[in-house]
Amino acid sequence: MGLLPCKNNMSEKRTEISDLGEFGLIDHLNEKVIIKNSSSLKGIGDDAAVIEAGDHVKVVSTDLLMEGVHFDLSYAPLPHLGFKAVAVNVSDIAAMNAIPKQITVSIALSNRFSLEAVEALYEGIYAACDHYGVDLIGGDTTASRSGLAISITAIGEAKKEQVSYRSGAKENDILCVTGDLGAALVGLQILEREKQVFLANPDMKPDLEKYTVVTGRQLRPDARMDIVHELGELGVVPTSMMDISDGLASEIFHICKASGVGATIYEDKLPIDKQTFDTAVELNLDPITCVLNGGEDYELLFTIDQKDFKKLEKHPDIHFIGHITKEAEGKYLVTKSGTAVQIKAQGWKHF
Amino acid sequence: MGLLPCKNNMSEKRTEISDLGEFGLIDHLNEKVIIKNSSSLKGIGDDAAVIEAGDHVKVVSTDLLMEGVHFDLSYAPLPHLGFKAVAVNVSDIAAMNAIPKQITVSIALSNRFSLEAVEALYEGIYAACDHYGVDLIGGDTTASRSGLAISITAIGEAKKEQVSYRSGAKENDILCVTGDLGAALVGLQILEREKQVFLANPDMKPDLEKYTVVTGRQLRPDARMDIVHELGELGVVPTSMMDISDGLASEIFHICKASGVGATIYEDKLPIDKQTFDTAVELNLDPITCVLNGGEDYELLFTIDQKDFKKLEKHPDIHFIGHITKEAEGKYLVTKSGTAVQIKAQGWKHF
């Protein structure tokens, strides 16, 4: 960088991105953003942006997935990767309480990729389009000098008054999560372990049969559109919502910051699958740490007004893990033994 | 690719992507796309997709730019690169006769990039947002194991009846182009030449002063939103339109194919800047070939009904290069000597 005639690509001062971290960098860049158009209802700072669209709103979310950072093609089957790339964007639309309708898919391919490999990737993309009822309406296909890059933008629809932002949680609201947590992180550890075993001895057959729940969650997660549809049918609009991509603790921090509130959650209410628990123990990981800090589960974290509790009380896949408090009360986990421990945010670190 | 447990990433059969080319690959993948939602008015196959939005439509375009394929940081200053990345997407919105309103920007950064470098890139992105009146409403920031990747999605607005598709050209319509052509290609050749000179002898100072038009077009093109606004003021809706990103000949093929028509253009009507012409000659390139096949000028190619000719006749930056014929009449360039030569499409080849 910074050869001829472009000296200014190499400035005198050099601050490492890792000094700021992903969220620090985003905050820093966004300070300078000015919204000029009245149709831009919500810009950066939520799971998706919100744009005026006549009688409704469009919600827009985008993700850029890079080989070697977000996926490892030595264990991620291409159809699963294609499905996951769509699912993680649909999950952001779900997190706004909106219905996904369209996606664009851009891919950059090195010459390592054959047509058959691209077809395998798109097999998963088409399967996800079918599963979520979204249309593939555009994209870009280009060469890459290095690894595979996949960039997807998802566009959804909602009535304006039904959009759930991160900022709407209020004192005494109930904190809910869907499904179970920690599986994707534990699955990743298993896949990495088996990869190392294989690299050390290629004749060794990896034993993955007993880990299908956790590896499946890592390789082919499902966005919780079922929950969004059910909330709609029950007439419940979450007061705040986001998807769990960086880990429960990190997401609770986001909601508390955006809403200006605190939160208390209870260890004995946190949902963990038996296979996730057993595998975490096998790997010498603390299962509760996996639940709190494991990313990529793509479950939904949301808050509801107490008046809506009855409507969801018997739902088999929604768990009531705590409640919203005043901001000054902070963010606490009450352990099984009754001790209140301050929650620390420890999301995914890419840098 | 195709290590454990993921054997299916490496299929038995291997067809090279280069056997199909970019357009062949896109066509192949799109055969399987099914549009399910009535709000998806136009999917793949134009400069941008079109989505229903109450009283108007949204147009959506996306591009993925990869270091080493789309840009070379040894001569592309980062602020210019940021501006260009936005401009090329805005150009796709312009090509639909729509007004850009929002963009999302995703970047993948290797640890080679300092905070100061990212700031320089965003300086250009913000300048473009300002210049085109668009809001930066979202994106993704992540690490890259290799080069820089930039993915931008632009969203614009238009009245439904004012959208110009590639498919609307009809016999006797007049073919128009804005500005002048070939400059970006010639500029790229100059930058590549000076880079080689510099690599051979780093003490050599590159002499770029006399090439500012052509290098400027390559490094920091401007989307022709001025033309879109003027067409609106004059009450002219082009019967078809696209932007010239792959080269005039290639774009004429796209419009003819989508509209089911032929076209005749005239060599003496093709606009070329004096510096482009002179530099092409200096580089031993045929100037007309640069005009026909040079990519990345980001001018607009459009067709108008003859009734609208009077409204545009005196416009200083719109050139009437030919007319639309019956499909059976083919695609021809009439040279200065009066010979009709068949046009060959020769767009950018990334693969």
Automatic annotation (TrEMBL), chains A, B:
<dbReference type="GO" id="GO:0000287">
    <property type="term" value="F:magnesium ion binding"/>
</dbReference>
<feature type="binding site">
    <location>
        <begin position="139"/>
        <end position="140"/>
    </location>
    <ligand>
        <name>ATP</name>
    </ligand>
</feature>
<keyword id="KW-0479">Metal-binding</keyword>
<dbReference type="Pfam" id="PF00586">
    <property type="entry name" value="AIRS"/>
</dbReference>
<feature type="binding site">
    <location>
        <position position="92"/>
    </location>
    <ligand>
        <name>Mg(2+) 2</name>
    </ligand>
</feature>
<feature type="binding site">
    <location>
        <position position="140"/>
    </location>
    <ligand>
        <name>Mg(2+) 1</name>
    </ligand>
</feature>
<keyword id="KW-0808">Transferase</keyword>
<keyword id="KW-0784">Thiamine biosynthesis</keyword>
<protein>
    <recommendedName>
        <fullName>Thiamine-monophosphate kinase</fullName>
        <ecNumber>2.7.4.16</ecNumber>
    </recommendedName>
</protein>
<comment type="pathway">
    <text>Cofactor biosynthesis; thiamine diphosphate biosynthesis; thiamine diphosphate from thiamine phosphate: step 1/1.</text>
</comment>
<feature type="binding site">
    <location>
        <position position="166"/>
    </location>
    <ligand>
        <name>ATP</name>
    </ligand>
</feature>
<feature type="binding site">
    <location>
        <position position="47"/>
    </location>
    <ligand>
        <name>Mg(2+) 4</name>
    </ligand>
</feature>
<feature type="binding site">
    <location>
        <position position="296"/>
    </location>
    <ligand>
        <name>substrate</name>
    </ligand>
</feature>
<feature type="binding site">
    <location>
        <position position="70"/>
    </location>
    <ligand>
        <name>substrate</name>
    </ligand>
</feature>
<keyword id="KW-0418">Kinase</keyword>
<feature type="binding site">
    <location>
        <position position="47"/>
    </location>
    <ligand>
        <name>Mg(2+) 3</name>
    </ligand>
</feature>
<keyword id="KW-0547">Nucleotide-binding</keyword>
<comment type="similarity">
    <text>Belongs to the thiamine-monophosphate kinase family.</text>
</comment>
<feature type="domain" description="PurM-like N-terminal">
    <location>
        <begin position="45"/>
        <end position="157"/>
    </location>
</feature>
<feature type="domain" description="PurM-like C-terminal">
    <location>
        <begin position="172"/>
        <end position="330"/>
    </location>
</feature>
<feature type="binding site">
    <location>
        <position position="63"/>
    </location>
    <ligand>
        <name>Mg(2+) 2</name>
    </ligand>
</feature>
<feature type="binding site">
    <location>
        <position position="245"/>
    </location>
    <ligand>
        <name>ATP</name>
    </ligand>
</feature>
<feature type="binding site">
    <location>
        <position position="61"/>
    </location>
    <ligand>
        <name>Mg(2+) 4</name>
    </ligand>
</feature>
<dbReference type="InterPro" id="IPR016188">
    <property type="entry name" value="PurM-like_N"/>
</dbReference>
<feature type="binding site">
    <location>
        <position position="122"/>
    </location>
    <ligand>
        <name>ATP</name>
    </ligand>
</feature>
<comment type="function">
    <text>Catalyzes the ATP-dependent phosphorylation of thiamine-monophosphate (TMP) to form thiamine-pyrophosphate (TPP), the active form of vitamin B1.</text>
</comment>
<dbReference type="GO" id="GO:0009229">
    <property type="term" value="P:thiamine diphosphate biosynthetic process"/>
</dbReference>
<feature type="binding site">
    <location>
        <position position="246"/>
    </location>
    <ligand>
        <name>Mg(2+) 5</name>
    </ligand>
</feature>
<feature type="binding site">
    <location>
        <position position="62"/>
    </location>
    <ligand>
        <name>Mg(2+) 1</name>
    </ligand>
</feature>
<dbReference type="InterPro" id="IPR006283">
    <property type="entry name" value="ThiL-like"/>
</dbReference>
<dbReference type="InterPro" id="IPR036676">
    <property type="entry name" value="PurM-like_C_sf"/>
</dbReference>
<keyword id="KW-0460">Magnesium</keyword>
<dbReference type="GO" id="GO:0005524">
    <property type="term" value="F:ATP binding"/>
</dbReference>
<dbReference type="GO" id="GO:0009030">
    <property type="term" value="F:thiamine-phosphate kinase activity"/>
</dbReference>
<feature type="binding site">
    <location>
        <position position="348"/>
    </location>
    <ligand>
        <name>substrate</name>
    </ligand>
</feature>
<dbReference type="GO" id="GO:0009228">
    <property type="term" value="P:thiamine biosynthetic process"/>
</dbReference>
<dbReference type="Pfam" id="PF02769">
    <property type="entry name" value="AIRS_C"/>
</dbReference>
<dbReference type="InterPro" id="IPR036921">
    <property type="entry name" value="PurM-like_N_sf"/>
</dbReference>
<keyword id="KW-0067">ATP-binding</keyword>
<dbReference type="InterPro" id="IPR010918">
    <property type="entry name" value="PurM-like_C_dom"/>
</dbReference>
<feature type="binding site">
    <location>
        <position position="63"/>
    </location>
    <ligand>
        <name>Mg(2+) 1</name>
    </ligand>
</feature>
<feature type="binding site">
    <location>
        <position position="243"/>
    </location>
    <ligand>
        <name>Mg(2+) 3</name>
    </ligand>
</feature>
